[in-house]
């Protein structure tokens, strides 16, 4: 029986550690992520804790399944419903499969919002997008223009010709080109989100346009390949690679100078904003109707569209000043 | 003459009383674990002893347990089916496809069960007719069945299920007793009777202990195995209906990784992974143990990875314990 006793003893020990005594009047907000152990979400949890510290009367329950499955998240949601938490802020593994479970949560009086990866409208009160297409379209050209005060030639290295996200962002970029006089987009090429093809396309761009000043790659695969192509062509300092990328993959390019700066959402801000929004709705009864505006602390306020979705902010800019802090996160 | 009768000695057919044997059985051990977990959970979380919460918690194991009963018979007979979760994916995809064309709930149920049976027959053909090892065949069909779902659905999803289809996975028979819970009990009874009270059940044990001996005893080994694969497929179809109804949608990633949880449940229930022994009551208790552990730890917001570690320790602990016990007893018995 000793083994069983040991198991039970360790169960009790785990229980003691986990059941950190919550003050009765504290508002409990659950931050449910796709899976535990992912740097991006650990950073979001950090942001949620920051918001909780700022608000004072909030306890954050950071939880999620081991694998990115909808079934695992439903088990987590059922456990949260059972604990009668005040709010659930979830990044969903499945847009539709979570709807019945989250509907049940809302019926039991729990505030439900989704963030990062959304839930179908009937399964949540509102959804927080990290950014929006117009903000991203503007950001990618701004990143290039910021380092070209006298204007210059830039080229776009996209994913595939049919990539919806990239096409919309490039379209939005073209709409605001008037705000950046002197900047010319000389060509748009497609690397198909393959490292080797993106590399060849980037090399081709530098050969076709010897005076090229910047390559904009609004794809995390293309931006890394383009930076490598610039290093290999010995054009560091002449051609600046920018766009959307992941700090962990781009740290080398920032260090070598092939990339001055790039952008992507900031997970800390995302977790912070999701917590602030959940608090405002659960505690202060903020409206989640279309057109409503909900404050979210240091991130300003969020305006909801007709689908009760809102965009948090401009993509966050990463450069030599902050890359070291973020490269280990995601 | 009277001397002879007085000299006959009674030779017991078991060394200990039936009660003693029952108390030392795997099932008793597991039941003790289940009760202990129940008590610990009641003390550590104020939310545990709540009828609605416990009712919600049964969803953690009902669907897996339905398959586990059929899998128990299959493993006792010395075979295994690792494609069950993929059968769920394929059956669910087929139901979703039919629902797009306006199929009603009865048709969807028939489609789900039929696809399950067909997949089971597919596995059975390769194992019993071609004589291939079941672990190899079902690792293959595990990719094949889910692969077909991915081809049909891609990154899309089926949503348009009829409203009354939700009854299976979201409905209640009365008060907090869910439809799935009732199905779970009915299926447990059916499989309990099948394994422990019928000739078919005796044949399953015989095949698991000695397939050649079973064959020479007149048991149609391949036919029994064929039926067992059909039953596992059928139960996967039932689980697919419940899970699809509960999620209200189908994606090709549905039930990913469930096959290992089903096998864990069976082994935790005392079924010998090499075949030959095991019982349905054991699997029933194992289902409750796994459900109670995951729900209890979930209530305490223990991270999922700790939960996996805990289930792993539980499995190894419960398997190692009887073996340790025997070794210690053997050592003590030596002079």
Molecular structure report:
The complex is a heterodimer of chains A (330) and B (335). Chain A is α/β, with parallel strands linked by helices and 330 residues long. Chain A has two domains: 24-131 and 267-314, Response regulator (Rossmann fold), CATH 3.40.50; 133-264, Rossmann fold (3-Layer(aba) Sandwich), CATH 3.40.50.2300. Chain A contains eleven helices and 14 strands. Chain A has helices spanning 2-18, 39-55, 70-82, 99-107, 133-145, 164-175, 195-208, 220-232, 247-256, 267-284, 323-326; strands at 27-32, 58-63, 87-90, 111-115, 126-129, 152-158, 183-190, 214-217, 240-243, 261-264, 293-295, 301-303, 309-311, 316-319. A six-stranded parallel beta sheet of chain A has the order 2-1-3-4-5-13, sandwiched between helices. A four-stranded parallel beta sheet of chain A has the order 7-6-8-9, sandwiched between helices. A two-stranded antiparallel sheet of chain A has the order 10-14. In chain A, helix 6 (164-175) links the parallel strand 6 (152-158) and strand 7 (183-190). In chain A, helix 2 (39-55) crosses helix 10 (267-284) and helix 3 (70-82) runs parallel beside helix 4 (99-107). The longest helix of chain A is centred in the last third of the chain and has 18 residues, at 267-284. The radius of gyration of chain A is 23 Å and the shape is elongated. The model of chain A is unreliable at 9-23 (pLDDT under 50). Chain B has a single domain, classed as Orthogonal Bundle (ABC transporter involved in vitamin B12 uptake, BtuC), CATH 1.10.3470. In chain B, strand 1 and strand 2 form a beta hairpin. Chain B contains 16 helices and two strands. In chain B, 48% of the residues are buried. With 335 residues, chain B is mostly helical. Chain B is globular, with a radius of gyration of 22 Å. The interface between A and B is large, with 41 and 55 residues.
